[in-house]
Amino acid sequence: MMASPLKLLLLAAVLLAACASSAHAGEEEVHEVKTAGVEAPEAEPPAPEEHDTAGHESDSDEDSHEDDHDDDHSWSYDGEAGPEKWSHLGYSQCSGQRQSPINVVTNRVIRRHFKPIVFENFNQIPEEMNMTNNFHSAKATLDWERTPKISSGGLPGEYRVINFHFHWGRMDYRGSEHTIDGESYPLEMHIVSQNTKYDELSEALQHPDGLAVMGIMFEVSRANNRAMKRLEPALRRIVKGGASVSVDEPPRLQDLMPWNTNDFYRYDGSLTTPNCNEVVTWTIFLETVKITQKQLELFRALKKNPAPIGRNYRPPQARYGRSVYLSQPEEEEVETIGFAGKTAAVRSGAPALTAGPLAALLTSPLAMRLLF
Ligand SMILES: [Zn+2]
Questions:
Q1: How far is the CA of 276 from the centre of ligand 1 (A)?
Q2: pLDDT band per the 50, 70, 90 thresholds, residue 302
Q3: Catalytic entry in 24, 31, 136, 190
Q4: Which residue of 120, 227, 228, 278 could cross-link 270, Cys pair, CB 3.0 to 4.6 Å?
């Protein structure tokens, strides 16, 4: 069939856009800016979880942000010890009014102009990384020459990274803990950081500013995610609950993160696993990271002896009037701010922020269907 003039025009524009952003071609394939919904105030989301008063119907589970409970078998993600029962199992904080995750309702967020998050040492390769199946999740613990830290960005302090881990589901349409207008993602990564003013995690867990967690949403793609590929061998070796292995070639933290860290949601919440401590300043990035179906299946294959972990997301919790902020830089600021671990040239290549409606159209699923 002959290509229509419209298709040819779109194809030419796409090729131009691809050339323009070739400065970071190596990684562009694994990142995508998600803006849909943010500018659509009329779109009332289905928000099945937006029950501010009913709250607490949970059907989720989660891994532990908290080292103390890594091998705790007293709670799970379904059945008698499922999320809706956690507060009855002795984890009283799980029924509090500052719980996580939440469903972000984009037409109710408050626009707030936070300074960019400052990332330190996110571009170094860890000296050592261990990946553990802790019966609830796949969790990476790391040793660094210089510990990665985050600050500014509206965070109530400086925070050092202590681990990262993942949440997933059995099917692609569920898996993330946070949802955006009721929409789930197949995988959510949490990078957990501890306020540097507290020496011990146990101390940080007692204070409302104790932890900061960055949530990163993944989308399935055929594009190869090279950073995630470095985790593949370790994931294959921790199928059994309790297994822990060293990652031979650990990725840099920044390579597991989205390009655009300037656009994020922010709210005060909790750990999403018992003890559900209400000590977390949450940052949820709008831009997603890509993962292949094959890589996603490696998470789904993890077991808690003998059954698969299956799913390890806690459902969204009631907001109880908490504010959720959306921080986005002004257009003219995009060129001068950004990921401290990346170069200015890369930063200025953030195409979806600077290229406007045409680029948004060209990278939309509709355009892709038209073209191919
Ligand atoms: Zn988590």
A1: 11
A2: very high
A3: 136
A4: 278
